[in-house]
Amino acid sequence: MPVSRVRSLPGHPDDLSGPSDIPSGRADGPVSRPGSLPGSRPGRTGSGLGRAGSLPGRPADQPGRFRSRRRKPGRVARCVAGVALLLVGAVGCGDAGGLEGAGATPTAVGPARLWPELTPASSPAFEIGEVNTEVVKGVKVPGDDIHRVDPVGVVRAEIAASQGDYAGDKAPYRDTNRRMADCGKGPEHGRCPVLRPYYRDLTGDGRDDLTLGFRLLPGKTTAVRVYTVEKHRLVQVMAWEDALSGVELAGRSLVIRSPSEVAGYEYRLQWTWDRDQRAMLLTQDEMLRTGPRKHSLHPSPHPSGAPAATPSGSPSASPTVFPSASTG
After folding, report:
1. Could you read off the pLDDT of 129-177 as tens digits, one per residue?
2. How far is CA 82 from CA 61, 69, 70, 87, 94, in A?
3. CA 126 from chain center: how many Å?
4. Is there a contact between 266 and 288 (Cβ–Cβ < 8 Å)?
5. Which of 28, 72, 266, 270 has an alpha carbon 20 to 30 Å from 303's alpha carbon atom?
6. What are the angstrom distances between the C-alpha of 107 and each of 113, 272, 305, 307, 317?
7. Are 193 and 180 in contact (CB under 8 A)?
8. With the C-alpha atoms ordered 113, 118, 122, 125, is the resulting torsion angle positive or negative?
9. What Å distances lie between residue 211 and 150, 214, 281, 320, 326, CA to CA?
10. What is the pLDDT of residues 281-324, one digit of tens each?
């Protein structure tokens, strides 16, 4: 059983040695009870009925009683005055650093299931290509080292495989195809539409993967691709085209931010490697506020509770930067 550190007060029922007090001139610190005073035999520690022990200098066989000293009135008055000064000082400091209330906490309301009689769907309504992988034809990976793969050659291979998007005067990305002639010195030289490549292990196999981007001209969109090496072949494991506000590599995820048609908001999409599908899957798709909120002069109060949803109720809803990646 734990032993509490408390001083025995005069007349306390636990003090079996009779009225006693610690001399007022001592400052030896707290005394463990049950136990013994400094210099005396230890008392019983198995219960709260132990003897207080004997004072220093008193024979060990005479435990228990000793005379208490009365405190002088002047000393007591000085102590009271000191405490009063401390209280005045504390009031003068104000409430700096104190806890402040954050207001009432709204009551948590659990989700309400709508139309439980509907049969759950077993297949998607639309095919959007969530698992997007393909082997890049015509591009070799020397020594299975993706750093030795030519990024410009990878984009050329995609253009060759999608002539309808790049070749001809009416192709949507015709200017990308034309400017590939300026990529002789590598990405980001002159008018070359290929952006600087970035390398990071996104698949968790201990080897770097390639994140590549190139402009889709004459429009304002950018293509983003991720490649890895499997069985000595270059495999594309992610593809996306969009107007970009920013691109980030975060851990083993790729995050793309794009502007929204709603002022003050943007889209944030995140792809993460899935080892079962052997692809980067779109794991998050959300719309976030980026601009300042408009503060109402009369904000609506938080409800203390909300009724369960009913069939007659109205519907409601309540929901290019790579900072740490290595470059080639």
Report:
1. 778 899 999 999 999 999 999 999 999 999 999 999 999 999 999 999 9
2. 41, 22, 20, 9, 19
3. 34
4. yes
5. 266
6. 19, 35, 6, 12, 17
7. yes
8. negative
9. 12, 11, 15, 11, 10
10. 999 999 999 977 776 555 555 444 455 555 554 444 434 444 44
Q: Exposure of 139 by Cβ count < 10 A (0-12 exposed, 13-18 middle, 19+ buried)? A: middle
User: Token pair of 230, please?
Assistant: 């499997």
Residue carrying the six token digits 């790579």: 322
Amino acid identity of residue 145, one-letter, is D
d(CA 37, CA 58): 12
Stated as kind and residue range, the H or E segment containing 254 is: strand 253-259
Q: Tell whether pTM > 0.90.
A: no
Q: Would you give the end-to-end CA distance of the chain in angstroms?
A: 66
> DSSP E strands: which ranges in 130-252?
134-140, 198-200, 209-216, 221-230, 233-242, 246-250
Q: Rounded distance, CA 324 to CA 199, Å? A: 10
Domain spans, the chain: 1-69, 134-292+320-327
Do the beta carbons of residue 252 and residue 237 sit within 8 Å? no
SS3 per residue for 61-112: CCCCCCCCCCCCHHHHHHHHHHHHHHHHHHHHCCCCCCCCCCCCCCCCCCCC
Do 1 and 9 touch, CB atoms closer than 8 A? no
As a whole number, mean pLDDT of residues 193-212 equals 97
